[in-house]
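User: What would this chain look like folded?
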Amino acid sequence: MTEYKQTESVTHISDNFIRMRDEIKRLVVGNDELIEMIVISILSEGHILIEGVPGTAKTTLAKTCAILSGCKFNRFQCSVDSQPADVIGIQFWNADEKRFELRKGPIFTNFLLIDEINRLSPKTQSAFIEALSEKQATIDGIGYELPHPFFTIATQNPTEFEGTFPLIEAQKDRFMFSVYATHLSGEEELEVVRREQDGTLNWKKFSDELSPFFNREAIIADIECVKQIHAGEEILSYIRDIIMATREHADIALGSSSRGSIALLRGSRAKAAIERRDYVIPDDVKAVALKALQHRIILKREAEISGTNSSAVIRQILDTVGVP
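Assistant: Here's the prediction, encoded as C-alpha cells.
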C-alpha cells in the first residue's frame, strides 16, 4: 500500500467514526469515550467488556453499533441456568433424515452481544474462551470456524451479587478492553429528560430509521488498513516498558499477560487511524492503556485493603514510565 493510499484510507476510517458517533448520539446521551472504545475494538479485531449499573445505555450502544455495521448480529441473554450448548450449539438427531445435523448457537455471527455475562456459571463462561481467542467453537470434538469479522460486546452489572459469578481470569484476559460505563453528568441527565419530553428517546422509532452504512467487506478493509499503521521501535519499547511495570509494581500480585502488549499495539493503531494519522504516537498508547490493562492485573491483598484499585495503579504506571 502506498503512502498516499494509506493516508486516504485513514481519513476514510476517521470520517466513518465521526459519522457513526453522530448517528449514535441521536439517541444516546454522553458516553463519548465508550463509543470511541467500541469503534477501536472493532478496528482492532478485539472484544470489549462493559461494566456499569443498569440504565447506562450499554445494551442500546451495542445494538446500535451492530445495526450500523451491516453485519449479522446475535444477542445472548445470560442466565444462571444457561449451558455451553446454548452458546455454541449442538449436534442433534434428524429422525426424518436419519443423521446428525449441526444446530449452531448464537456465537456464530459477526457481532455478538453477551448481556450480563456474570450471570453465567464458570462452566458456561468457559464456552466463550475458545471463541474469543481462537475464533472457533468446538462441538462434539469438531472445530468450526466463526464468521469473519467476529466481534463481541459483553456487559455486566458490578453491583449485583445474587445469582452472579465473577468472571474467571482466563475469560477476562480474552477481552481486549474493559470499560466502566458511569452515570451521566447533571447536564447530560437533563438532556435525557428533555428528549423523553420531546418523544425523541424512543428505541423503536430510532432503530426503524437506522440503516447500515458499513458492510462486512468494508469493515474487513478498514481492519486491514489499521494493521498497516506504523508503530516505530520507540513505541514498541514504550509498550514493553508499561507491561513490565505492571509485573514489577509493588501493589500488583500478577501483572499483565502478553495479550496486554498486543492489545496496546492494536488499540493504539486504531486510535491513530481515528485521529487521521498513519503512525502511532505515545498519546495513542496512553489513550487505550487503562482500558487494555485494568482487567489484566491482580492487586496484592494489602493494596486492596488500603483502598487502592487497579485503575489507580495503571494511571500511576502511566505517570512514571518514561515517554519516548
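Residues 1-5 have pLDDT under 50 and may be disordered. If you want, I can go into more detail on any region.
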